[in-house]
Amino acid sequence: MRVAVIGLGLIGGSAALALAEAGHDVLGFDPDPAARDAAAAHFPVTGDPAGLAGTELAVVAAPFRHLAAVAAETLDGYTGLVTDVSSVKAEPARLFARHRFVGGHPMAGKETAGFAAAEPDLFRGRKWVLCLEADTDLGDWTALAALWTSIGAHVVPATAAAHDRAAARISHLEHLVAAALVRVADEPLARTLAAGSFRDGTRVAASPTTLFTGMVEGNRDELMAAADDLAAELGTARRHLDAYTDWPSSISEWFDEARARRADWPPEPLAAQRIPLTREALAELGAAGGWLEAVESEVALARRPRVKSTS
Questions:
Q1: What is the tally of structural domains in the chain?
Q2: Residue of 87, 89, 135 whose CA lies nearest to 107
Q3: Are residues 173 and 74 part of one domain?
Q4: From CA 102, how far away is CA 140, in angstroms rounded?
Q5: Is residue 12 a part of any domain in this protein?
Q6: What is the pLDDT of residue 311?
Q7: Which of 128, 125, 65 is nearest to 102 (CA)?
Q8: In this predicted model, what pLDDT tens digit does every residue of 131-171 receive, in sequence order?
Q9: Signal sequence span per UniProt (predicted)?
Q10: Are residues 153 and 106 in contact, defined by beta-carbon separation less than 8 angstroms?
Q11: E strands, 237-288, where?
Q12: Distances in Å between the alpha carbon of 275 and those of 18, 102, 290, 291?
C-alpha cells in the first residue's frame, strides 16, 4: 500500500518505520525540515502537500491543534483514505468529515518525543482503537484493521464517543493526576526521598505539554466528568481517614477493593476465535473489550477478555 504519514514525531515516525519494514511504500510528510532530515534515511520525505497525491492512505499524526489545518489545507482535495492517531476521536471525525475518514488511536507512547524516539515495534502487542460508527465504510475500516494488525497491533472496534469516555479515565486523567502529584511533592526532602511509587505515578508528567493540552482541547467534557469521579473517590477516602480511629477497617476495605481490581489488570484473554467481519460482530466485540489480532478474507482472528466470576 502507498501510505503517506503526516507528522514525523514519535507516533507518526514509529508508524512510518513499522509500515516501511512491513514492505509498504511510505512517504513521510512534515513541515519541519529537521524532522524530514531525520527521517530521510529511512523512507522518502516531502514538505509539499502536492507530493501526497497518488498515495492510497494518509495517516495524520500531527498534533491535535494542527488537525484542522491538515484537513483543510494539507489534505485539501485528497481522495484517498484518511485516518489519524489522536488521543481524542469525536473532534477529528468532525474535522475530517469531508474525507474518507476512519478515526484511530494507538494506545502506545513514551515520554520522549520526535523522530529520534520513534521505533518500529512501538505498537506490537498494543491496542489500537479504530472507530466504527453507523456510517463508517466497513471496507475502509477492514483495510485499516488489516494494516495495523500486520504490524503487530491489536485493533479494538469502538465508537468515538465510547473511546473518548474511556480514554478520559485511563489516559487523560492520569496525565492530570501525575502533574498534580508532582506539584504536591515539590519540596526538597520529598524530592530526595521519592522512589518507585513517585516515579511510576508521575511518569507521564514528563510528556510534552502540547500532548496534554490537546487532550483538554479535544476531550474537555469527558475529562471534567472523570475528574469529578476522581474527586468523589478521594472524598470517600478522606472521610475514611477522618473516621480511622473509630472505624479503621473502612479505609482498608476501600483500598482492598482497589487492589483487587488492579490485580485483575490487564485482563486475561480467552482463546482466539474467528468472527465475521460484520458491523454487528465487530461492535459486539469492542463493547466486550475485545480486539482483533489478524484480518483474513471474510473473518478476523479475535480475542475477548475473560470475565471473572464475582460470586
A1: 2
A2: 87
A3: no
A4: 7
A5: yes
A6: 43
A7: 128
A8: 999 999 999 999 999 999 999 999 999 999 999 999 999 99
A9: 1-20
A10: yes
A11: 273-276
A12: 26, 21, 11, 11
The CATH code of the domain that includes 225 is 1.10.3660.10
Q: Does the pLDDT of residue 194 top 90, yes or no? A: yes
For residue 309, the model assigns a pLDDT of 52
CB 27 within 8 A of CB 3: yes
Q: Which residues, other chains included, contact 275 with Cβ-Cβ below 8 Å and sequence gap of 6+?
A: 281, 282, 285, 299, 300, 302
Q: Which residues contact 184 (CB under 8 A, 6 or more apart)?
A: none
β-partners of residue 58 are 4, 82
Q: Residues 20, 115: contact at Cβ < 8 Å?
A: no
Query: Letter for the amino acid at 134?
Result: A
Regarding whether 108 and 188 lie in a shared domain, the answer is no
Shared domain check, 243 and 184: yes
pTM listed for this prediction:
0.92
Q: Report whether 93 contacts 37 (CB < 8 A).
A: no
Which CATH number do you get for residue 77?
A: 3.40.50.720
What span, in angstroms and rounded, lies between the C-alpha atoms of 75 and 233?
A: 44
| Residue numbers of the domain that contains 190 | 163-261
For the stretch 207-231, pLDDT in tens is 888 888 888 999 999 999 999 999 9
